[in-house]
Design a protein that fits this description.
By secondary structure, the protein is an alpha+beta fold. It has one domain: Ferrous iron transport protein A (FeoA) (SH3 type barrels, Roll), CATH 2.30.30.90. The protein has helices at residues 24-32, 67-71; strands at residues 12-17, 40-46, 54-58, 61-65, 73-77. It holds the Pfam family FeoA.
């Protein structure tokens, strides 16, 4: 499942990131923030109009991701 499809408040683990689908500067910034395979993520909020950006918890931080960036991140939903 892609991160942009993950239900809100549902914990997941990043299983893959399609770095080549992102701009180089965006990929670098997300790596610096700790986004990589194996990290725990959770979609917290979605903007009401256009549904972009998505606020996500990445580890212990909250990060705003564009829908296109979230679509490049594959996650495995964890049991609640």
């Amino acid at each position: 499942m892609r991160l942009d499809q993950l239900p809100l408040k549902c914990p997941a683990r990043v299983s893959a990131v399609a770095w080549d689908e992102m701009a180089e500067t965006t990929a670098k910034r997300l790596r610096e923030l700790g986004l990589d395979e194996g990290v725990l993520v959770e979609a917290l909020h979605v903007a009401p109009f256009g549904r972009d950006p998505i606020a996500c918890r990445v580890g212990r931080m909250t990060v705003a991701l564009r829908r296109a960036q979230a679509h490049a991140i594959t996650v495995e939903q964890l049991a609640a």
